[in-house]
Design goal:
Helices cover 41% and strands 17% of the residues. With 340 residues, it is of the alpha+beta class.
């Protein structure tokens, strides 16, 4: 598994296994407004500015060309073949298992994927799901297995109207230990809630799995401080899990709204080192949330139903994200028929 598909295997997939019904309804219903891009040789989607008026037109193209990769835009255009007349765009998050930070990816090397890191990526998507459904009340969320990770695509009408600046505010909220004051449109997303849940999850994940050497990789933290953190790990973790202080105080100069600190961690690190520690968590989390994908409304994403030829797995709509297992659900038939 994870072996690159040959041109013949691609032809077999699109002629014998791919079905028009595998294209999700949310995409089929808007197909006339979307730009399509194709990679024909494994060097990237150079064939862009394609448009189709129906799934049948897309079907004919895929069966005839059997591309290495197929993509569609997250944006709607009046003239998608020219990428003109921008209308609106999905809010998208891309979690790629091959790019998870080292503290989360201890199963295989960077750039590779395995069953373990795919499950880690899925758990991250589930934490996003909890925030968007539970905290923000978002309803139209679709989950896509991309071949090497997961896409979360939000199509709520008000969200699709967000500008790139407003999308950046959402990223700041999701990835950081601080919230920024946004525009009127995003104020409901940035309501004071203490540290964001994802930030807490990442901080706990680092602390639960870290060794002294891991902690020492954080700028400004030496072996003595790292050892003290490890000795007090249980107390620090308990404090983070139970912390409920929701008092906020905006900095009059920067406008940044900061919360009170986690006391058990602060007592060891003090103010300066504490900020370096939380900045490290912020950078790790921001690295998982690919900002380019979320903010760039001209972005194209892998077409659900298409083949990820690099690893010979299907990109597909996930009906039940909780129980989804990619290595049983997203494996094309031709993979099991390979010799040797």
């Amino acid at each position: 598994m994870f072996k690159e598909a040959t041109p013949e295997e691609r032809r077999i997939y699109y002629r014998e296994e791919w079905k028009p019904g595998d294209v999700p309804d949310f995409l089929a219903e808007s197909i006339g407004y979307r730009e399509f891009g194709f990679d024909h040789d494994g060097r990237g989607p150079r064939d862009r500015y394609n448009a189709f008026t129906s799934v049948e037109g897309l079907e004919k193209f895929l069966r005839n060309r059997a591309p290495y990769s197929a993509y569609s835009s997250v944006s709607y255009y009046e003239k998608p073949g020219k990428r003109e007349g921008y209308m609106k765009a999905e809010l998208v998050f891309d979690i790629d298992a091959k790019d998870l930070p080292n503290y989360m990816k201890k199963c295989c090397k960077q750039g590779s994927i395995c069953e373990i890191c795919l499950e880690t990526a899925k758990q991250y998507i589930l934490s996003l799901k909890d925030i968007f459904q539970g905290d923000f009340g978002v309803k139209k969320i679709y989950y896509i297995y991309s071949g090497r990770g997961f896409h979360m695509r939000i199509l709520d009408p008000d969200v699709m109207e967000f500008t790139d600046v407003e999308r950046a505010y959402i990223l700041d909220y999701l990835s950081g230990s601080q919230a920024l004051e946004g525009s009127a449109k995003v104020n409901r997303w940035l309501a004071p809630r203490g540290y964001t849940r994802i930030f807490k999850d990442r901080l706990l994940g680092i602390l639960e799995d870290a060794s002294v050497k891991d902690i020492q990789r954080i700028e400004g933290i030496g072996s003595t401080t790292a050892k003290e953190i490890i000795r007090n790990r249980d107390k620090i973790i308990s404090d983070i899990r139970e912390w409920k202080n929701l008092e906020w105080s905006p900095d009059p100069k920067t406008g940044i709204i900061r919360t009170a600190r986690f006391k058990a961690l602060l007592s060891i690190l003090k103010e300066n080192k504490y900020d370096k520690f939380t900045d490290f968590v912020l950078k790790q989390n921001a690295g998982i949330l690919d900002a380019k994908v979320t903010v760039d409304t001209k972005r194209i994403l892998r077409l659900p139903s298409s083949l990820h030829s690099k690893v010979s797995l299907k990109c597909m709509l996930i009906r039940d994200i909780e129980s989804f297992e990619p290595l049983s659900k997203a494996v094309p038939k031709f993979v099991s028929e390979r010799k040797g």
